[in-house]
Amino acid sequence: MLHRSIDRVTVIPPLGPGFDGERHKATLVVAPGNFLVTDPFFLMADDHITLEGRFGEAHPHAGLETVTFMLNGTMEDTGGRLAAGDVEWMTAGSGIVHSEDAKVSTGMRIFQLWLVLPVEQRNMPPRVQILQRAAMPVHVEPGVEAIVYSGRLGDAEAPTKNAVPVTLADIRLEPGATFAPELPAVYNAFAVLIDGEVTAGTVDERLSTNMVGWSSPVGDGSSTLALRAGMNGARLLLYAGQPQKTDVVAHGPFIAGSLEELAGYYADYRHGRFPHASTMRPLTLT
Fold it and tell me: Which residues form a coiled coil (predicted)?
């Protein structure tokens, strides 16, 4: 068994103006532009809403998956409803339009992750999965509760359909508790501290609220990432995924493998060839 270290630590930047007026603040947990290091994770935004109401406009995506984790509040559109602890896993693939007539609650906070799809599945038919917190498997150890939304931790395996092999878990640790989640050694991983403090990895890197610790692939086979909670316990989101090792071209809401493919997405969208999420029946996993 290989043991992981924390190779790089970043801090979530202060909130700035969002795209939806004064009530919307946002920042980047994972910034784009360094895909060689973050592969398969392209970016992750942290969005906060201070007043309920409409949120954004219908917009397209293609060539990627979005993973929207509802940390607080609710968000509802014509495609479904997310409450705190729920996740929308949307595979845009060849193209989709979503967030139609979206409405959010006061105090809403979401993390939205963009995943680069495997080359052979970049233009797969789009699909939407709603992962309800209450339906997700839970791995429990003394002082540890890990809700598994994708992949497997211990005896808990999520039914989520993955184009990109990914493990996603919401981990809560009681004060002083230890946990060593097992991950494929080839995965790139990062942990976001939502609350509290942990020491992580082989050299006990200290991570506290709003810090992000990255753990690079360590070889083949299985690996573990040691976590120990501080005196007040901790909550963290653990993301780990298989690097795609591909060149990408990104512009606006699209990720492609070439400028020609990117131009094709724009042409298809302009000609109304993208299905709308509201016309698709989401897969609600139970």
Answer: none
Q: 90-124 in b/e burial notation, b at 16+ Cβ within 10 A? A: bbbbbbbbbbbebebbeebbbbbbbbbbbeeebbe
| Token output for 154 | 């211990």
What pLDDT, on a 0 to 100 scale, did the predictor assign at position 98? 82
Token output for 95 = 């193209």
- Specify the pLDDT at position 284: 62
Residue 6 — φ and ψ, nearest 5°? -95, 115
3-state secondary structure (DSSP) of residue 116? strand
Beta-bridge partners for 171: 146, 236
> Which parts are annotated binding residues for Fe cation?
59, 61, 98, 100
Report which of 227, 244, 178 is spatially closest to residue 5, judged by C-alpha positions.
227
Binding residue ranges: 59, 61, 98, 100
Residues of the chain predicted below pLDDT 50: none
CA separation for the pair 148, 154 (Å, rounded): 10
- Class of residue 273 by CB neighbours under 10 A (exposed 0-12, middle 13-18, buried 19+): exposed
Give 262's Cβ-side CA count (13 Å radius): 13
What are the angstrom distances between the C-alpha of 239 and each of 95, 190, 214?
25, 5, 10
AA letter at 279:
T
